[in-house]
Each structure stands twice: as structure tokens, then as C-alpha cells.
Amino acid sequence: MIPDRARGLAVARRGQWIAGLGLVLLAGVYIMAQRFTPMEVSQGLAQKIFYLHVPAAWTSLLVFSIVGITSALYLWLRDERLDLFAASSAEVGVVFSIIMLTTGPLWAKPIWGTWWQWDARLTLTLFLFFLFVGYLSLRAAVPDAGERARYSAVVAILGFLLVPFVHLSVYLFRTIHPMPVVLKPSAPSLPDSMLRTLLIAFVVDLVLYIGFVTARYGLGLVAHARAAELEDRTDA
Amino acid sequence: MHETPQNAGYMIAAYVVTAAVLVGYWIRLAGKIRRGARG
Amino acid sequence: MGNGLRAALALAARDVRAELRSRTALTSALVFAALVLVVFNFARDPTRLGVADLAPSALWITFAFGAMTTLNRAFAIEKEHGALDLLRLAPMPREAIYAGKLLANLAFVGVVEAVALPLFVVFFNRPVWHVLGPLLLVTALATIGFVAVGTLLSAMAVRTRFAELMLPLLLLPFMLPPVIGAVQVTARLFADRPLSEVSGWLRLLAVYDVVFVTISVLIFPAVADE
Q: What is this structure's pTM?
């Protein structure tokens, strides 16, 4: 049983290295955003929050979709690795949604004059966070491993289906979020240096996600191995 | 032409929070890996 | 399918009969709904906010929380009587178990709403006769949606630690779209606007019901199986 734990630790350490590289690259993004992007005239320096907020939001949404899709695959294939991967992703998703939810109001206060607005996309991001936390709380509250995997997969799939409804109903309620300036059918309406910095920041967030999720996954393997060791000991 | 607003404080706060969250999570995972190797 | 439907109806009838015998859960849920209405009346500044301004919100918060307490009981009763495992072994399709539970829950939540509505009329001085038809329609559309998800979630929550906390934590996000829609429609109805003005909301509620009833039926076997 010892080799299993060693393998998990090796995976976790590799993830830790990738995430460490991501943190170094993030320092590069900070320098790019401060030195090599123009000052936005009407918003001032607060506009530079955009280089952190928007990539974190994209990453949260992507991770949320990954959790939903791997959960559906788990219910189909019943492979434990898919469950462990979904759980690891959800935990890292919480990290990125915390960044999204703190940097958002820090931008909104000087620009909109208020920390929070009940607009469609803001509410949506808040719900991503609620659903991630609900998913992880459920996992923590189910003792049996098989039940835990199935229940949390069900919640992830339901949450995945809920998100468009939240967006649509709050949108009909009212919305004031700035219209998308990057992801829209016509050419992005951003200066090149701003767009480049934004996209690089997104890639760095992806590196961080891959690193963190690998580390978390490796730790999950270690926990599995340890549970198996305990079982062996009680059997003997 | 209105003046560019002075709001560097908000930007610094956002950059510090982002770094703190990511580095904090990295350290947390590092701690778990160390414990996983020992126990 | 005919067999499954009959099994579902039999299961729902059994639940309703059991509840009629004891009446503990339903009585508590009804008193709880009345209490929410009372608290709502006093949780406002009477010099600035008339009771009529709060009426649609009060009605829907009462319905939502009444449904929540009712759903919390749904599978807890099974668990207390140790009937949950017997139900799993029963020779009936898993989908029929879900459908039976859903029908029984809709009946219970429907009773709570049917009692809360007259109380609301009295406490909030808000006659509803002239809009009763459309109001019942929107109530049915919104209720089916969150009870469908709630039935599925309560089947899981009951098998977790701190089940009473787990159900609201998981279910409240799913109550948001139905409650937003229902409050919007109810407010328009109380303002004597025509139903055509809210057809978009009604369609959204209907789509929500179709999506979540379908997925819940399809996914329930994953919850029930060993």
C-alpha cells in the first residue's frame, strides 16, 4: 500500500511545482499590468483591476463547467478518479470565485459608486460561489464514499442546469453590468496591450488551476491510500 | 474633459487580495503535502 | 409506464394517509407559515412602507419557507420509520418512487399554500378573488419547479449529517428563479395588470418546471441505488 501513497505524493508535488510556476508568472502579469498597459482616462488606476477580475471570473465559470461535466461522466462511467477530479476542481473553483467576488466590488466602488449591484452577472458569480460551497459542504456531510460521489455529482449537474435560469431571471429583473468588451461577435474593442495582458492573465490563471487541481488530486490519492492502509490494519 | 479619478487604493487592495488568496492556498496545499509525507 | 404510474400514485396515497393520521408535520408547517406572515408584517418600518408594498414578497417568502419545512420532513419520516431501505428493495421502478414522493410533496406544500393564502388575505388586507385564477396558475408553476428539485435534494440531505441545514443550503439557490418570477407576476396581478404583460415570466417558469422535473426523474436512480 505504501507505493500508492508515494504515487499520490508525487502527483501532489508535481502540481505544487506547476502552481508555483503559475505564481511566478502572476508576478509577471502584475508587472505587465502596471508598466505596459495604458492608463484608462475615465476610470483611472482602478481599471487595472480588470486584468485580475475578468480572468478569475472566466476561470471560475470554466471550472464550474468542468465540475458539471466530470460529474455527469462520473454517473455514467462510475470511475472514482472522475469523482476525485470533480471534487478537486470544485475546491480550486472556490479559490477563483473568492478572487472574483472580492476584486469585483473593489472595482465597482470607485467606478459605480457602490460595492454591489444586483445585476445579472454579479448575481450569477455569487451563485457560482454558493453552488461550489453547497457542493463541498454536501461532500463533507456524507460519510459513505460511494454515496458522497453520487450525491455530489447529482448536485453538480443540477447546479450546472440552474446557472442559465439564474442569469436569465435576474437579467429580466434588471441589469447594469458593463457590456462584454472582449467576448462579443465583432472585433474586441480593447487596445492591443490591454487585450494581450488580459489574455496572458487568463492563461496564467489556467496554469494556476492546473497546478492546484493536480496537487489537490494527488492529496486525494494520498487520502485514499491512507484509508486503504487503515482498513488493512483493522482486517489484520 | 474631466479629470482622471484618483483611485489607486482600490487597485492596490485588489492586487494584494488576489496574491494573498493564491499564495495562501499554495501554502495550505504545501502544508498538507508535508503532513501527507510524514504521517 | 402504466404500472409505474400506478405504483407512484399508491406511494403518494400511502404518504398522504400516514400524514392524515398523525398530522404532526403538516400542522407544524402550517403554524410556521402563519408565523412567517406575522414576522413579515412587523419586519418593516410602518411609517415608510405600507403593508401592500410588501404583499407579493411576503406571500412568496411564506410559500418558499413553508415548502422548505415541509420538504425537510418528507424523507425524515421515512428514515424514522426505517422505511427508506424497504422502499429501495420494493419491486418498483426508481422513477416511480421519485414520482410518488413528488406527488405527495406537492400535495403537502399545496395544503400549506392553500391555508397560507387566506391568512395572507386577512393579515395583508389584500383581496385576491378577482385574480385568483392567474394567481393559482403562477403558484402552481413556481411550486412544481422548486418542489421537484427539493424532493430530489431532500432524498440526499436526509442521509447526511446536519440534514436540517443541508437541505436549505442546497435548495435555496434553486428557489431563486421560481421566486423571482412568481413575485414579479404576483406584483403585476395585484396592480391589476393584464396577464399578457407577464407571459415571458410564465414561460420561464414553465421551462424551469419541464427541465427540472425531467432531470430529477432521470437522475433519481443515481440517488436511490446502492
A: 0.89
